[in-house]
From TrEMBL:
Belongs to the fatty acid desaturase type 1 family. One of its GO terms (cellular component) is endoplasmic reticulum membrane. The chain crosses the membrane at residues 23-43, 49-72, 170-188. The gene is LOC100902476. Keywords: Fatty acid biosynthesis, Fatty acid metabolism, Iron, Lipid biosynthesis, Lipid metabolism, Membrane, Metal-binding, Oxidoreductase, Transmembrane, Transmembrane helix. The lineage of its organism: Eukaryota, Metazoa, Ecdysozoa, Arthropoda, Chelicerata. InterPro entries: Acyl-CoA_DS, FA_desaturase_dom, FADS-1_CS. Its cofactor is Fe(2+). Signal peptide: none annotated. This is Stearoyl-CoA desaturase 5.
């Protein structure tokens, strides 16, 4: 005789190796709007652009990029060097123009990325596809492992910095000021262009800057050289060699994340962030610069490095 007891349902979301994808629709619609606005500003308003506007546009893109590379990444995430209060304030304000979440969240997620690279606890793991690693991770709810490990990660040093606490408290108004209002006002007042076009230039710069950073999460974990550790996905990607902020030596960075340089070379045009950090040390704004010894780099290359080639 057949049993009349109902078959218990299985919660597949709790099964090992399974994760239920949950789309964050507001982020999806926001990115669609952002890209549409940027494309219209570039192609639909091409007659309004001038070389002077482009120079201002490029300058703001560089400043926001350096705030990520020098500030969020090397200073606060990895503690590669120390910075005086005036420089930390400037980097924090410029970081608001980058608009990539407040510094605490950015640094916490980046530390998770390094500690749990390409696992479920990696916020933008490449094991879930290149689009996910590039920008899809921002359109989906975080994996349970990311949330769990993020809570256990020690980020007390970040909250111990009053500059980060200030930005975190007032991030929403600072975000709108940095991403849209201030850059748009500069273009609008200085070049006598329509206000909507000025806003469009800011959204175009913002879109470009987001992809500029996202390429490190995707392309730099996809293919390229692995001269320092051939067993990890992080690579020195030739496509982003002219990356705006000098983060193309990604294999080196994952092996020596404490180094204020992104490569073993002290001087290279492909890592202008390192040059700026070193330049600022000459005037006392940065100090205690950390770097890997040449002996340690040579040993690592000889032990598990790869001569070259594509992954």
């Amino acid at each position: 005789m057949c049993s009349t007891k109902p078959t218990p349902s299985i919660d597949y979301s709790k099964r090992s190796g399974y994760f239920r994808t949950r789309i964050v629709w507001p982020n999806v619609f926001f990115f669609i709007f952002l890209h549409c606005a940027a494309l219209y500003t570039v192609f639909g308003c091409a007659h309004l652009w001038s070389w002077k506007i482009f120079c201002v546009w490029y300058l703001t893109a560089c400043l926001s990029a350096y705030s990520v590379s020098i500030g969020a990444h090397r200073l606060w995430s990895h503690r590669c060097f120390k910075a005086r209060l005036p420089l930390r304030i400037v980097l924090m304000l410029l970081n608001c123009m980058a608009g990539q979440n407040d510094l605490f969240v950015w640094c916490r997620d980046h530390r998770l990325h390094h500690k749990y690279t390409d696992t479920d606890a990696d916020p933008h793991s490449t094991t879930r596809g290149m689009f996910f690693a590039h920008m899809g991770w921002l359109m989906l709810k975080k994996h349970d492992a990311v949330i769990e490990k993020g809570k256990s990660l020690d980020c007390s040093d970040l909250l111990g910095d009053p500059v980060i606490r200030f930005q975190r408290r007032f991030y929403i108004p600072l975000y709108f000021l940095g991403v849209v209002i201030v850059p748009s006002w500069i273009i609008y007042r200085c070049f006598d262009v329509p206000l909507l076009f000025a806003v469009g230039t800011s959204l175009t710069r913002y879109t470009f800057q987001l992809h500029n950073t996202w390429c490190i999460n995707s392309l730099a974990h996809w293919f390229g050289d692995r001269p320092y550790d051939k067993n990890i996905k992080a690579c020195d990607n030739p496509v982003i060699k002219w990356h705006l902020i000098g983060e193309c030596f990604h294999n080196y960075h994952h092996v020596f994340p404490f180094d204020y340089k992104s490569s073993e070379f002290p001087f290279t045009i492909f890592d202008t962030s390192s040059s700026l950090i070193r330049l600022l040390s000459y005037v006392g704004l940065t100090y205690d610069l950390k770097e890997a010894s040449q002996e340690a780099v040579a040993r690592r290359k000889e032990k598990i490095g790869q001569d070259g080639g594509l992954y």
